[in-house]
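The pair is quoted verbatim underneath.

:::
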Amino acid sequence: MPYLLGCIFALSTPIGIAAGIGAKPNNANDQKLTNGIFDAISAGILMYTGLVELLAHEFMFNPYMRKAPIRILLLAFACVAFGVAVMAILAKWA
């Protein structure tokens, strides 16, 4: 079973590239819409992974954060919000 899942994971990128090439429309407006949809899906996956898999683990299962005073928790949340703002500015700028 692990080898099957490893093969599926290894093939996911080439299949995604083929799907992207196959979904490329000829019209410029349709191409912008298709790119926007694919970008939104990718952003959603990245946000889910970052928030649920990484940040939730750090905030909920870290013994230090579980016992930390509210000031430390608010500071940690402010740092996360600052990082989100910086990434949003970089995304708008790029």
Observations:
- The chain has two domains: 1-61, 65-94.
